[in-house]
Amino acid sequence: MNILTFDLNLLRVLDALLRERNVSRAAERLALSQPAVSNALNRLRALLDDPLLVRVGRAMQPTPRALELEAPIRAALRQIEESLGEGSHFDPARSRQRFTIALTDYAEMLLMPRLLARLAEQAPGIRIDVRHLSPRLPAEALEKGELDLAVGRFEALPPRFAGSRWMSETLQLVARRDHPQLRHGLDLDGFLRLRHLWVHGGQTRGLVEQWLGEQGLSRDIVYTTPNYLQAAHIAASGDLVAVLPARLARYFAELLPLDLFDLPFDLGAFHLQIVSLDLRRRDVALQWLIEQIRVLGEG
Questions:
Q1: What pLDDT is stored for residue 134 in this prediction?
Q2: Are 182 and 210 in contact, with CB atoms under 8 Å apart?
Q3: Domains plus CATH for the chain?
Q4: Which residues, in sequence order, are CB contacts of 53 under 8 Å at separation 6+?
Q5: What is the DSSP string of 227-250?
Q6: Would you place residue 8 in the very low, low, confident or very high pLDDT band (cuts 50, 70, 90)?
Q7: Which of 47, 58, 197, 288 is the most buried (most CB within 10 A)?
Q8: pLDDT digits (tens, 9 = 90+) for 268-290
Q9: According to the model, what pLDDT value does residue 154 have?
């Protein structure tokens, strides 16, 4: 293939199609008509001698050849954008960018109402898509450009990622009001006798499990969920207890019949981070968004 005669705009179309897996949504993302995107896809199929995306039911699935091209094309487009944008002025008020962020439902509750209010004032054209944070750092999605940011508690970051502290938090135990095992308070023995609900919160091993493991102890976890908000409701309606971030625990104690207890051991504070690909330090728009999130964490 002769790169001198290849229409590089087609790579933007392929990138959008691989992100959206839908011609209409890709057209909306590119601000093009649906026929224009369909025509570009047909040209790409002819040039690359591969169907690239095939319809399976109502969805479009990429072929192995398309998946092979996805990461290098996205990385090349990002490098071009950053090179051309270096030193350029970013105007939040006029931006029409869309950012995709991975975070837990707890972090979403803390962050998004305030962030959306801030964006409505300063950057009304910016759009936010949220993805649920998995138990591990979504490294591949960040590298492919499927995610712009991840917000959560992470272990040591690989060197290809940049992290900045967002906020600090502590933990409390929540239990239904007048729980029969907690009428006289909470000590370590009582904590271990309780039946626990564990919210993994984007982690494969929680702070409580780490501390208990160091002491040669364990607790009785009978239910595990990724959802902080649901955990509070489950604790309020039965005998399971949950260890939750203190801000969330206090919030739900005002809405549900819950009692709060300090843990009978000191874990100190833990820190939530804003994580992005280190290569995107020169992405002015993304760095602006990170700064807005960081400032909100200080409040």
A1: 82
A2: no
A3: 3-85 (1.10.10.10), 92-168+271-298 (3.40.190.10), 171-268 (3.40.190.10)
A4: 17, 18, 21, 41, 60, 61, 62, 63, 66
A5: -HHHHHHHHHTSS-EEEEEHHHHH
A6: confident
A7: 197
A8: 998 899 999 888 888 889 999 99
A9: 87
Amino acid found at 256: L
Q: How far is CA 68 from CA 72, 160, 293, in A?
A: 8, 21, 34
DSSP code for 273: E
Identity of residue 191 = F
Residue with tokens 């995610």: 147
The tokens for 148 are 């712009």
What's the pTM? Answer: 0.69
**Cα–Cα distance, 197 to 205 (Å, whole number):** 14
Q: How far apart are CA 45 and CA 196, in angstroms?
A: 54
As a dihedral over the C-alpha atoms of residue 276, residue 277, residue 283, residue 289, rounded to 10 degrees, the angle is: 0
Specify which residues 161 forms β-bridges with: 277
**Termini Cα distance of the chain:** 55
- Residue 198's closest CA among 176, 220, 175? 220
